């Protein structure tokens, strides 16, 4: 078994900074495209830079794109996020379409979540003395000793009528009262 997971960064699940409060905030801040002008493994990256980079930059004005040519090196994409995380990706021998897809993935994800080892599945800045909530928290403890099937516990929950239901019943009662008064009035008129 590998011990590779021991060397991953550890942390807690967190909401991205500023996301969902008022408006969408793109978490990707900077992308650096490193490539070689003559090396064969950089052909897809060069195709992306020549044909698609301007459109990508126009569609994503909040992302700063750096292009860095390097001699005789494999192509690399380095993404830097708002929370300070960096994701480094080797794109040797990738074609242009693959690089477009990877650039879109880097733009839409929050950070390199695959390289984060979660210490706990939940985390709070304000811990409770009572502990985490469970569905059984406010249940009657005598149900632990009940024998099942139980008619009382298995019965449907009868809730009090809602305000709308009460208004409908009052309206129906008022209509019945009005109908009975009009029928009494017409009967008296017929007898006279």
From TrEMBL:
Domain Ribosomal protein/NADH dehydrogenase per the UniProt entry, residue ranges: 37-110
Q: How is this protein annotated for GO cellular component? A: mitochondrial large ribosomal subunit
Task: Show the SMART domains listed in the entry.
Answer: L51_S25_CI-B8
Supply the InterPro entries for this chain: Ribosomal_mL43, Ribosomal_mL43/mS25/NADH_DH, Thioredoxin-like_sf
Location within or outside the cell: Mitochondrion
Q: Which Pfam families match?
A: L51_S25_CI-B8
Keywords from the named record: Mitochondrion, Ribonucleoprotein, Ribosomal protein
Question: Quick one: where is this thing mainly located?
Answer: mitochondrion
Q: Name one GO biological process term.
A: mitochondrial translation
Which GO molecular function, any one, fits this protein according to its record?
Answer: structural constituent of ribosome
Hey, which family's this protein in? Belongs to the mitochondrion-specific ribosomal protein mL43 family.
| Name of the protein described by the UniProt record | Large ribosomal subunit protein mL43
């Amino acid at each position: 078994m590998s011990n590779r997971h021991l060397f991953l960064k550890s942390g807690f699940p967190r909401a991205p900074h500023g996301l969902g409060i008022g408006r969408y905030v793109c978490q990707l801040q900077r992308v650096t495209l490193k490539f070689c002008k003559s090396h064969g493994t950089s052909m897809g990256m060069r195709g992306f830079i020549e044909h698609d980079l301007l459109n990508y930059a126009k569609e994503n004005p909040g992302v700063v794109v750096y292009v860095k040519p390097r001699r005789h090196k494999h192509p690399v994409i380095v993404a830097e996020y708002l929370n300070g995380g960096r994701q480094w990706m080797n794109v040797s021998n990738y074609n242009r379409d693959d690089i477009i897809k990877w650039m879109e993935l880097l733009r839409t994800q929050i950070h390199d979540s695959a390289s984060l080892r979660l210490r706990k599945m939940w985390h709070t800045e304000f811990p409770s003395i009572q502990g985490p909530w469970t569905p059984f928290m406010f249940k009657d403890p005598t149900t632990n000793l009940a024998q099942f099937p139980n008619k009382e516990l298995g019965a449907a929950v009868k809730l009090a009528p809602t305000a709308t239901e009460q208004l409908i019943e009052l309206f129906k009662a008022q209509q019945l009262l009005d109908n009975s008064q009009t029928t009494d009035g017409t009967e008296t008129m017929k007898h006279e």
